[in-house]
């Protein structure tokens, strides 16, 4: 009987230690707030490249921007990617943002804090959903916010040759 009581006390102590460690011992450091300039550049890309009221489309555009930032083929900053010549909508860095700018900024902070569109995956490219391109290396992954998102692949590795219907 004494062993059972002793065993119970040890078990309870181990459970308590596990709970304490899980609650306080492995606390994550708070993520730093994204720089204001990066938020503005990301918001501009999202605002001008997606339907301005589509959080899903904005998230997809932001995911592509971040995929480019992490690629050796593009500039390594958000503003560098968004400001690249002939890559995004004309005037993306200079036109005024009006209705929907608040949502774009909110979504920009989310993406810069690590949120990604679950279907964009490694895609670094997109075009208007209505546009039909005749290239054989475009592997479509999702259509969102009025855009069709795709990865460039070797033709024999392309399995989705047409844009999906809008989510």
Automatic annotation (TrEMBL):
Ranges of residues in domain Cell wall hydrolase SleB: 54-150
InterPro entries, per this entry? Cell_wall_hydrolase_SleB, SleB_dom1
Q: Does the keyword Hydrolase apply?
A: yes
Q: Name one GO molecular function term.
A: hydrolase activity
Tell me the keywords, alphabetical order. Answer: Hydrolase
| Keyword Hydrolase attached | yes
Cite the Gene3D superfamilies for this sequence: Cell wall hydrolase SleB, domain 1
**One Pfam family, short name:** Hydrolase_2
Name this polypeptide is given: Cell Wall Hydrolase
């Amino acid at each position: 009987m004494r062993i059972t009581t002793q065993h119970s006390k040890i078990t309870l102590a181990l459970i308590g230690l596990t709970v304490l460690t899980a609650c306080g011992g492995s606390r994550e450091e708070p993520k730093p707030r994204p720089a204001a300039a990066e938020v503005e550049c990301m918001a501009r890309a999202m605002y001008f490249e997606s339907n301005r009221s589509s959080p899903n489309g904005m998230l997809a555009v932001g995911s592509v921007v971040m995929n480019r930032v992490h690629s050796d083929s593009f500039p390594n900053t958000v503003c560098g990617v968004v400001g690249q010549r002939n890559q995004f909508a004309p005037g993306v860095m200079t036109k005024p943002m009006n209705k929907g700018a608040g949502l774009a900024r909110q979504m920009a902070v989310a993406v810069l804090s690590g949120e990604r569109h679950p279907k964009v995956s490694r895609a670094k490219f997109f075009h208007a959903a209505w546009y039909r391109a005749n290239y054989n290396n475009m592997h479509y992954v999702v259509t969102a916010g009025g855009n069709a998102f795709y990865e460039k692949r070797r033709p024999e590795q392309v399995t989705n040759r047409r844009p999906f219907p809008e989510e």
